[in-house]
Amino acid sequence: MSSKLDKSTKVNVKVTSTPKPQPKVSAPKAPATDQLQGRDTIYIDIDDDVTSIIGKIKNSENTVIALVPPKRTGALQSVVNLKLLQQAAKNNRKKIALITTDNVLSSMASALSIPIARNLTSQPKLLDVSEPEIEEDNFIDGKDIAVGDLAKMGTKPSRAASEDKEISAAVKAIETDDKINDDLDADGEPDSKPKPTSKDKKARVIPNFDSFRKKLMIFGGLGLAFIIFLVWAIWFAPNGTIIISAKTTSKAYKVSVNLDPASSTNVDKAIIQPVVKQTKKTETVSFSATGSKEIGDKATGKVVIYNKYSLSSFTLPAGTVIATTSGLQYTLSSSVVVPSVTGTLYNPHPGASSPVAATASNIGENYNVESGTNFSISGQNSNVYAVAKGDFTGGTKETVKVVQQSDLDAVVDRLKEQADSDSVKADLTSQMGSNVTIVTDSFTASYADATSKPAIGEPASSGSATATMEITYTMIGVTTSDLEALVDSQSRALIDDESSQKVYDNGLKNLKFTSFAPGDANYTVVISSNAKIGPTIDVAHIKERAVGKRSGEIVSDIESIAGVSNVQVKFSPFWVGSVSDQSKLKVEFTVDE
Asked: What secondary structure does DSSP assign to 405-459, as a single string?
């Protein structure tokens, strides 16, 4: 070979067959200084060639370098390239290690005594593996290259400049070989061959079955829902409404109704059981008492009854009146036995009773008499008398304000005026509910007699008093069902010929209540309205003629019927143009005003 590599020589190493088992040759153990304590990490890009990698090794500031190749090893697929990297590191007094899990690359590195680590956190070490077997045609050993400088790369150069020159010559030879083989990126594949695209990479990815199953269920469910929707939309959803305006005549009716809470509804007799709602409210107002009155306590004390006349004892009953010489009267609180006179005619000894309580007949301090006061006894002569046993006390009297009837009468109107009847009426209306029609003018209020506190004639503290009145509110209503039965009965009575006429509007919406009057146990009210009478139209015949037809055809067909003034047809949902089933059609009638 000349100083340059032959153009037919292939530099990159490709392993085409499984390495044959070789006797295990233990790689020499690295001394302790070969253990990589701190290092510079170089990440090799897939596009990096051996020259750029050598440049990165030279530029590294650390003496220990960890090379991290990509998944596709690129330039490191060649044993020659590995030897060039090893030699370049050695010439620059540096040590290299590979961080890889690729078994082929690990085998080639181990054969060259390059330390291997599985990841960046583990310590690189020499693996005990056999050197891989490489086909002769695909492997170019640096020793066999007929380039003088390259063949001497295994020996230690004398000078750094000489080493760089040798490496540059080898690299140049390899680059020439890559150009010849159209493989400048040293990936083992011609550069002209289309590179795998991202789509190709995705195509080689093993599909996620769980994701596929979820998508299948989702799209399957959507498909099933769409099928169900189509069935509903075609067979179940379509429906139509035919609105017919008939030519009618207005006729009035009026009936006096007896609203009796104790009777059942009988529309033929114009009797309806009403709905009665009541509530009671108590109104209170303060006022000033204008009357006056003397009040006080009666004096009390005890007396002893003396008998200077009767030779026999006798009894004075309770309530016996005794009086002072000034005319102040008292009554005995209990009966008392008066003893007879003792002694002789010339020396009599009056009989004296035990002390008995007496109470003044009226209030006042003047009834508080002193002890020893003499009292005459009603119905007895002067020989029978009473004497106060101790002072009479407790008699008092004062003038105070009291409530008069005229005071209470004056505040009744105020009680009525302050009542909030509007809020009560709203409350009773809400109690009626939506299915009850309230009778106009039925809201009434009844007033109980007003009372005062204190009561009439009683003293009013500070001259003020309060008046109270209870008010009962009543509202009358009629249920919608009873009203419908009544107006149906009244409107049907207006039909002249039931075979050809019918009621289109019974007047329920326009009812009027007048002349409401409460009785002793019931109420009366006059109900009036107007009914709309028109021709009878066969609904079943209308549906039969409308099945399968478009709206325009249905309108033209039904308007030809006598008594019909206008027709509207509505189909739903929006995509429906006709209905094929009579059960899906509904016929409504409106009154032609």
From this structure: HHHHHHHHHHHHHT--HHHHHHHHHHHH-TTEEEPTT--EEEEPPPEEESPBTSB
User: Across the strands, what pairs with 436?
Assistant: 479
Which pLDDT value is given to residue 189? 60
The answer to whether the CB of 510 falls within 8 A of the CB of 529 is: yes
Token readout for 533 is: 């009478």
| Over residues 477-493, mean pLDDT | 92
Assess if CATH 2.40.160 describes domain 297-396: no
197 burial type by CB count under 10 A (0-12 exposed, 13-18 middle, 19+ buried): exposed
State how far the Cα of 5 lies from the Cα of 170, in Å rounded to an integer: 9
Structure tokens at 353: 């009773």
Question: Measuring CA to CA, how many Å separate 362 from each of 334, 358, 573?
Answer: 18, 12, 99
Q: What pLDDT does 10 receive? A: 37
Q: Which two tokens stand for residue 178?
A: 């890559």
In this prediction, residues 9-13 reach a mean pLDDT of: 36
Structure tokens at 166: 């040798």
Quick: pLDDT tens for 275-288: 999 999 999 999 88
Rounded distance between C-alpha atoms, residue 331 and residue 228, angstroms: 108
Domain boundaries defined on the chain: 32-180, 236-246+537-591, 297-396
Q: pLDDT tens digit string along 377-411?
A: 998 988 899 999 999 999 999 888 899 888 888 88
> pTM for this structure?
0.45
* pLDDT, position 86: 84
The 3-state secondary structure of 182-237 reads CCCCCCCCCCCCCCCCHHHHHHHCCCCHHHHHHHHHHHHHHHHHHHHHHHHHHHHC
